Amino acid sequence: ATVPTIRLNNGVEIPQLGFGVYQIPPEETVEATRTALEVGYRHIDTAEMYGNEKEVGQAVRESGVDRSEVFVTSKLNNGFHRRDDALRAFDQTLADLGFDQLDLFLVHWPLPTIDVDYVETWKAMEEIYASGRCRAVGVSNFNPHHLRRLFAESELRPAVNQIEVHPYLANDEVRAFDADHEIVTEAWSPIAQGKVLGDPVVTRIAEKTGRTPAQVVLRWHVQRGDVVFPKSVTRSRVEENFALFDFELDTGDMAALTGLDRGERTGPDPDTFDYVP
Ligand code: NAD
């Protein structure tokens, strides 16, 4: 079964399942990304912050898969929120990837407490989009109140909002806000970096369906309509995480997994996170 695509608000299609490369050291990234492309992934999620954009670009070139068939996302790092810095950082991202066009570029964090207003940053993203060198632009870790300011003070709607979502943090208020404003939600740390896989509800559904805990949780995301990109450097897991489109969870299983929500983050809170390298 093939990976479905989701249409962004500007008509661009994004594969619903991708491969995330956060915390993959650069010296392992070429091999891990090539493995994912061999397995069939056609969507890679990286970031300047991850320090492995060069290796992602190299893997795409070496894979033999046509560049046009792989959807690649990168993100603007926290130190580059001023307009001129953002434009330069985007140029550097493209140069490091070795691409002449990126598929999706995101503001990595809103950083609402630093001395640069994220509306300035978003206006730079509008310029980047207008240049034609990026097929879509969006945000990451934006709450509804951050997004409302963008709507009020800029022209372009973000195509996606990439936020932390997994059964311990269903994040349904932000997801609903995104959906109401034609913004696709991407779920980061979809298996909570492994923390949800031993949960008795997850393992019970895994036994019942004859699937692994990771597949059950990733399938829950898929049926909720979010985009996901689990990370692994282990080929068998990369394969396992890709095999999500030949089974279905029933409404009871879906509700039981959503019922695990306990507002528990694995990463920082977007309203207070202010780390600038
Ligand atoms: P994840 O939820 O994808 O978990 C990855 C970890 O889970 C792996 O390191 C491995 O230990 C384990 N794992 C993976 N597959 C498994 C399997 N089948 N069985 C058992 N264990 C398995 O965590 P993540 O890497 O934090 O998130 C995925 C991607 O989301 C990242 O690579 C990155 O692209 C993105 N992300 C974005 C942000 C952001 O601020 N925008 C933050 C974190 C992550």
Walkthrough of the structure:
- The protein has 277 residues and is of the alpha/beta class.
- It has a single domain, classed as NADP-dependent oxidoreductase domain (TIM Barrel), CATH 3.20.20.100.
- Helices cover 39% and strands 15% of the residues.
- The strands form two sheets. It has an eight-stranded parallel beta sheet with strand order 3-4-5-6-7-8-9-10. A two-stranded antiparallel ribbon has the order 1-2.
- Strand 4, helix 2 and strand 5 form a beta-alpha-beta unit.
- Bound molecules: nicotinamide-adenine-dinucleotide.
- Nicotinamide-adenine-dinucleotide binds next to helix 9.
Which terms would index this structure?
two-stranded antiparallel ribbon; alpha/beta; binds nicotinamide-adenine-dinucleotide; 277 residues
CATH superfamily: NADP-dependent oxidoreductase domain
CATH top level label: Alpha Beta
Whole-number total of structural domains: 1
The helix-and-strand class reads alpha/beta
User: Count of DSSP E strands?
Assistant: 10
* Bound compounds: nicotinamide-adenine-dinucleotide
Mean pLDDT: 98
Q: How many H/I helical runs?
A: 10
The CATH architecture is Alpha-Beta Barrel
Q: In what order do the strands lie side by side in the largest sheet?
A: 3-4-5-6-7-8-9-10
* CATH fold topology: TIM Barrel
